[in-house]
Structures
1.
Amino acid sequence: MTFLEQVLAILWKDIRCELRSKQTWMGMALFALLVLVIFNFAFDLRVDNKAAIAPGALWVAVVFASLLGLGRTIAAESEKGLMDRLLLCPVDRKAIYLAKLLGNLLFIGVVELVALPVFAALFNVPLFAGSLLPIVLLGTLGIASVGTLFSAIASATQARELLLPLLIFPLIVPVVIGAVRATGALMVPAANEPPWLGLITAFDVIFLSISMLTFEFVIEE
Amino acid sequence: MNHPYLEVTGLKKSYGFKPILRGIDLSVEPGQCMALLGANGAGKTTLLRILAALTSPGTGTVRIGGFDLAHDAQQARRLVGFVAHQPYLYDELTALENLLFFGRMYSVRRCKERASVLLERVGLVKRAGERTSALSRGQAQRLALTRALLHEPLLLLLDEPDTGLDEEGIALLETLLQEHRQAGGAVLLTTHHLERALQWSERIGLLSGGRLTYQSETGGLEAGSVREVYQEALR
């Protein structure tokens, strides 16, 4: 069985389990929508302060909704002893990481698919303007690559719900700052703005590489 | 292969400063079954987890089918079938889907046919399309046994495999183990059931305080004499 086949087999299994249990992505989507709606009513969204609030609202919704899903990535299988069953198989540990990462990207992507049109409508932001979609894609990849690795670390502990945000937040600060500022720059273009998309891309490459290389040592006892 | 399917030499394992295994030496030849007895906390499950390449050995060597776990863990994993005292199945998947998923992980050829044959063998063919959450505890354990046999392993590691099985299930387990050994496979199992250990295996070992304090061939061995040794080890 090739590496790609292993990845797809694990991904297929995760998607099928999630579609049948609906434990993760429904909660994530509802949470993201709730955050956007509350932000919309809580702040005065005149044209002059929209650029300051809307990007923050979007990324608060994405980051916190992602955490709900990331927390379940490995923990759901570990709690039932199923991660051990998977580790018993002669499967490349990088394939497990990649499958889990793709699963997370897919579930967060579904949430974003629901949340982005609502965000665009509530905050009056053109959805396909500039590079909003690449910013969302690259930002999500950064959050998911770190989150997938650290969900494996947190799953081995008792206080995983507390530990996971504590571990992830400091690490994803660069990508969140980059994503918020890049989204803001789409609304109110500013001169001499740093290349935020480049920063997020560099972050993604670095953390994806580190996570792929270290996952084996994190997941095995 | 000319070497034992399982060869353990000087195996030690500690968690922090607490020693769990204090030097285990054992081997299981092709076609042989060895039963490990021991009180709760004696180190049986830790030993089996190390042999299944789930937990890293502290010191010592473990060879499965000639592959050293320290260097060739992936090769060794292909040769091992593992059944725990819990079934550990994906509740959201059906019985057949569970088998097909793990079959793909082990690159089993004609997996669907093999799974169907095994499901028929363990009396679960009519429930193949049902989610495993709908199976009874005994049926789930049968399915876990099926999963362990799916890739035709050389070595079966069974951690109290009779847990949750009714009399019929236990008889089926015994038959499947006999067939596995007749096909040249080896078995290492842990149990608390002394009579069953004597009946199913050629050798028994007693694990106590992280050491294999007693090993013997079961031929001509009386349950009473083993029980005395067992009771002595528990004190």
2.
Amino acid sequence: MLWSDLVTIAPLVGAIVLSVAIIVVDLIRPGASRPAVAVTLVGLAVIAALTIQTGQTSAHAFGGGYVVDALTTFLDLLFISIVALTVLFAPDYLEPRGLPLAEFAATLVFAMTGAMLISASADLLVLFVGLELMVLPGYLLAGFAKRDALSTEGAIKYFLLGSFSSAIFLFGLAFVWGLSGSTSVGVVSTHVAAIVNGSAPFSPGLAMGLAFMTTGVAFKIAAVPFHYWTPDAYQGSPTPITGYLSVGPKIGAFALILRLFVGALDPAKTDWLVVVIVLAALTMTLGNLVALTQNNVKRMLAYSSIAHTGYMLVGLAAYAGGQVSGLQGLLYYGAAYTFMNLGAFAVVAALQRRPGVTSQLDTFAGLGRREPLLGILMTLFMLSLTGIPPTAGFFAKFSVILPAVQAGGWLTILAVIAVLNAAAAAFYYLRVVVYMFMRESTTESDPSRHSSLVWAGLWATTALTIVLGLFPGPLLSIVTDAAKAIP
Amino acid sequence: MFATFPILSLITFLPLVGAIAIAFTPRSRPGLARYLALAASGLAWVFSLVLVVSYILPTSGNTIDPAGFQQIEQRDWIPVFGIQYKLGVDGLSLVLVVLTTTLSWISILASFGPIKERVKEYMVSFLILEVGMLGVFLALDLFLFYFFWEIVLVPMYLIIGIWGGPRRIYATIKFVLYTLVGSLLMLVAILATAFTYSSGHNGSFAGAFDFLALRAYGPTGFSDSLQLFAFGAFFLAFAIKVPMFPFHTWLPDAHVEAPTAGSVILAGVLLKLGGYGFIRFALPLFPVAAKTFGPAIIVLSLIAIIYGAIVALVQPDLKKLVAYSSVSHMGFVTLGIFMFQTAGMNGAILQMVSHGLITGALFLLVGVIYERTHDRTIAKMGGLSAVTPVYAATFGFFMFASVGLPGLSGFVGEFLVLLGAWSYNPWVAAIAAFVMILAAGYLLWMFQRLFSGDVTEFLKGIGHHLTDLRPIEVVTLVPLGTLVVVFGLFPGLILGLISGTVDSVLAGLQASPAVTLFPLQ
């Protein structure tokens, strides 16, 4: 190991040091949440600075297994903001329920380390290690409220299906390694290219390996028909954790897709195009249709998150169909979805501050009168998730649909399916608005004050949701650079 | 005089400034929110009148586009996709902008009494609605146009859903879902045209959303199949807004449940967004498709005209009657547009303006009686002319305007459309003219049931609450009445403004042939 390697992976080292530091702080001041939050936020700021610093120049480390480029930097900063926002929203929810905040924050930072490793991996094994490091803390977090039966049930389902899909993924990886003789993304890519252009014989084993890896990844991003764990895991988890689960592991899994499918399997993209189109169409449509009938907002957002996976897959499909801008759309969508969805979950968590308050739609009845500001912000997030201007969600949809229309053929039909889905989604998102503003409160009003941390996080997500909708230019140029870094 | 002065942006965003100011007022002072809203929309109205003056008397500093657009404001917005912030005004948008600003302040004034709950939120929604509507009429970039088009949706959704009648939630969700399906498909069509434009220009997106660039490129650059598809998507979006038969079913629900001012804006401006969209975007961009689908759309328009009138005839609810009469009257608009000749299109635009004024006033008048009796059932009313003579006279005036009495604005529009229809196909003219008799029937019958005969027991029960028009109500109705008379006597005021737009749209259509959809060989 060289000194230069260590400098390159400085953000990762920082993340591990941070999670240890949080635990140490908790040992010194047991149960005190404010110091833990403060340490986490300062640490995350330092890691962000390190990420930007190392991201100035593209670099490789550990014999090419670890790569730093514009994509790594963009994704890492996104992961860091996801964790920072989650930590801001969590204390108000966890404290009244007696759940330990420091352990929560430390686990979250571990998960972030895994996600950051994925975004920087140029080797299939590193990719797998990163994946496991990201999802294992996720299982812990899903079962964080260990005395709550629903939470435990969700965690067990998440764990069983998650490990199962990891095993499938690893199995596929073994095939690919066995037949290409390397785990390096670059070597696998040349191998696949040789098969595609006919200079090497078609290998059924490699195709099987690809099929297994696709299945494993489809589980991770909760694409239909591999989505069954999502609703229970999301509904059972403590709400701030659900917020994290709906964006963190999803963006992480998309990072894996970018590194694996776009990096290693790029030559064969016309072959997996069909698979992605079918997955995208099924995922959007089923996610939205089932979300229509939900009366629990967390469960509704879980199904809607499945639908949003589908919209992101439209970007990937457009890329496979020959439009590089599809990847920009995918990345833009990822960022926009992160902020609007975390904002929506933050409002749900804020409403559930008192233990025992459910996330049923009834909880939202009359919110516009009880807490007008919270109601207005939730309306903004719902409009953004629907995709109505001037919000981030609108431009995100625009940025994946435009490349799909450009690619033409079946992808135009996919684009039409996507917009029809968006119209259907309006029904269930706006139903929340109906409850908040057009129905009278059914519960007695709860004059609980939300902490300044929650407000800080909410204002941050609100500002990003509006700014990314009105002035998408700057982020668009960042994701353009990031997308260029891949192939 | 306005060389570098962004008057279009000023008009568009003045209401937004008002909305932001209102957001910071204390909830305990609803009066402040009301007067701020009135001031913001009033200022926007004043500046729109200034715009009319500067349009008619172009000065040396005024940028005039060869296609007739003035006061063009252009800034890069999202350069990667060639998306611009581009506003411009021609005669058609000018007329509709003034209609919007006029009806906006009138509606806000008319809400002073009826809206007592959550006044602040109401006024904010209303002003944002005005921003969206003005933006749609002024945008010269398709992305920007779509942006404003969707913004209109949200405040209207809230206005119907929060301040509406008993079935408001059903009505408002229906309104949103109908509109959204159409507009999202239009988004795909906008993207398809932008992409086609860019692939015709070496893959560069510069100008791909610019309406003027697309209009120059589209008629020849877009293939027939793209035109048919894109026109279909635009048509769906606009036909739902107009609304044309069979996409009209959201309208009666939305109108019945909306608060009075919401109905005024819905009928007065929102329905015109559809007609405006046809003339501004659908016809110039996709002339081949417009020619191809034209006859079918004329048939749909005739069905709307007849169907709306027949259904209006049997409505027991006053507001629903006016709503269905809207379907019928807006049928004249689409009929006039799709005959593709000068008289018809002039008539369609006049009809849009006069329908906005007359139906807006009728909804205000329905609101007056509803506020006093909390009922709109025609059967319960009777003998009102004895109790409220001024109200009866005003109602009668606007009722005759809606019937199409010569000398009032409703007559000119329908007359021009019929004139065009006669040269297009006498049968079309005959059917449309027959419906004008039906219109006289349902309106006069309604008037007779409301105002003549003995005062009903129901109205006697209202007692002294049944007052005649109040000064504030007179103030809202007088400008509308004045304009109805002015445009009825001097339709040239509008025709002069719109002739440039009408000529250029028709010239574009002349050059393009229709295609045979289902070749029989």
